[in-house]
Hints:
Strand content: over 45%
Structural class: mainly beta
CATH superfamily of the largest domain: Immunoglobulins
Number of helices: 1
Strand order of the largest sheet: 1-8-7-3-4
CATH architecture of the largest domain: Sandwich
Oligomer: single chain
Number of strands: 18
Distance between the termini: 80 Å
Helix content: under 10%
Amino acid sequence: xxxxxxxxxxxxxxxxxxxxxxxxxxxxxxxxxxxxxxxxxxxxxxxxxxxxxxxxxxxxxxxxxxxxxxxxxxxxxxxxxxxxxxxxxxxxxxxxxxxxxxxxxxxxxxxxxxxxxxxxxxxxxxxxxxxxxxxxxxxxxxxxxxxxxxxxxxxxxxxxxxxxxxxxxxxxxxxxxxxxxxxxxxxxxxxxxxxxxxxxxxxxxxx
Length: 207
């Protein structure tokens, strides 16, 4: 069974037996109880398990329903896969800085949500602004690098990167604020000049 994160997991099991068997559910070998998001409804011929607003990290796994009476025990298992958006990318860095462009790099998320990453979305923001400007929404998942152009010299920028799969766009990871500036500048001052020789109408100065 495959469901999307946030949906309801519904597993229905037909039950037969005389005497009427007692029903129990497990996930990953641990008993399931009817609490919070979990609902269990049993009658003489069936057992229904509902888990509302399912979460990949918590609810994915192998479920087992067991019917038991004095005659014997019978069990049935079902594997539940939950698909979700990817996790946040890692190591978002600015690797090259110029007056009007920066190179942004990152590494893939630890979790792809159970669905392959299709692309990355990159945005930028002036640190003094609250709104984001999209740099690209279609970056090849194998590249994980982009050069952001048309920046303003002297402005400090933050970049955020999000991974996307067929389920949707995941949470962002941000770079450190970085100032757009030329890596080149005027030379520093020379060392103090020194007079090494002189005459009536001349000086020899070195530095």
